[in-house]
């Protein structure tokens, strides 16, 4: 084993993943498609700790709570099973976005962890198998393994992975209206939706239709169709989520105002379309030459950042290792290095 560091970027879905066919394998009920960003990265270092009795997680310089540590430990059990080893590890992860606020930090987090852990445990995985592995941490993480626009195939354990598809160049404007951790996790909300919404089966079947149309629109370079599907599918997802019992609402009045402002910009000649994940922040896709002007118009709603298609998850060198949280953790971490 060896100490490894990897970096991955979040992705924002243009055709959303909302609902599982298999909870344990994290197989989606329908395929989805996303844009991996070139900002808001997660960098993760995995340090072998062969003498430790449990995994340790340091998140943004602080020891993570039991819930977060259990979730990565369950994921690492899967890596250990693949490697045929039992070693515990110290994971140091640094996010440039707040965790759990709906900007998909779990996607970048598990994509970076999968990439670093696979290398730390000497697993020789191709891109497809690395995407399948990341999927076991968080479904959307499998789409942060490939570059740029990626489609995640529904299917079985072997066939459910993400890969890059051809698409026109575009920019995304991220409008951060709230950085707080969300009250209900995507995982919980997804479960509740499948269990209680009368619209769930229609959502799953219409998502497959939209995905097919979206992949065709991407291949044809048809930005207008890409945008129409993006905005319509996002609103369908939020309608679906609001139809759960008890209802869940992720969008707030500012989110709705941004959707309206983008619709107004469209009427005034800037073609752009909105989407939002499980939180109030809004992501707007736009053609590259219109991005700065629209970002300026949206800057009154919150922090605005223009981002573009980013790279897939990749290993970094020892120079980029995430530093230990403090001196005490340094002693434990460094001392146990393989
Ligand atoms: C709204 O991938 O976080 O961002 O697989 O349970 O970890 P788990 O869920 P997660 O859900 C993401 C939901 C979404 C839509 C999307 O990214 O497609």
TrEMBL record:
<keyword id="KW-0067">ATP-binding</keyword>
<dbReference type="GO" id="GO:0004163">
    <property type="term" value="F:diphosphomevalonate decarboxylase activity"/>
</dbReference>
<dbReference type="InterPro" id="IPR041431">
    <property type="entry name" value="Mvd1_C"/>
</dbReference>
<feature type="domain" description="Diphosphomevalonate decarboxylase-like N-terminal">
    <location>
        <begin position="8"/>
        <end position="160"/>
    </location>
</feature>
<dbReference type="Pfam" id="PF22700">
    <property type="entry name" value="MVD-like_N"/>
</dbReference>
<feature type="domain" description="Mvd1 C-terminal">
    <location>
        <begin position="173"/>
        <end position="299"/>
    </location>
</feature>
<feature type="region of interest" description="Disordered">
    <location>
        <begin position="319"/>
        <end position="338"/>
    </location>
</feature>
<keyword id="KW-0444">Lipid biosynthesis</keyword>
<keyword id="KW-0456">Lyase</keyword>
<dbReference type="GO" id="GO:0005829">
    <property type="term" value="C:cytosol"/>
</dbReference>
<keyword id="KW-0443">Lipid metabolism</keyword>
<dbReference type="InterPro" id="IPR005935">
    <property type="entry name" value="Mev_decarb"/>
</dbReference>
<dbReference type="InterPro" id="IPR014721">
    <property type="entry name" value="Ribsml_uS5_D2-typ_fold_subgr"/>
</dbReference>
<dbReference type="GO" id="GO:0005524">
    <property type="term" value="F:ATP binding"/>
</dbReference>
<comment type="similarity">
    <text>Belongs to the diphosphomevalonate decarboxylase family.</text>
</comment>
<protein>
    <recommendedName>
        <fullName>diphosphomevalonate decarboxylase</fullName>
        <ecNumber>4.1.1.33</ecNumber>
    </recommendedName>
</protein>
<dbReference type="InterPro" id="IPR036554">
    <property type="entry name" value="GHMP_kinase_C_sf"/>
</dbReference>
<keyword id="KW-0547">Nucleotide-binding</keyword>
<dbReference type="InterPro" id="IPR053859">
    <property type="entry name" value="MVD-like_N"/>
</dbReference>
<dbReference type="Pfam" id="PF18376">
    <property type="entry name" value="MDD_C"/>
</dbReference>
<dbReference type="InterPro" id="IPR029765">
    <property type="entry name" value="Mev_diP_decarb"/>
</dbReference>
<dbReference type="GO" id="GO:0019287">
    <property type="term" value="P:isopentenyl diphosphate biosynthetic process, mevalonate pathway"/>
</dbReference>
<dbReference type="InterPro" id="IPR020568">
    <property type="entry name" value="Ribosomal_Su5_D2-typ_SF"/>
</dbReference>
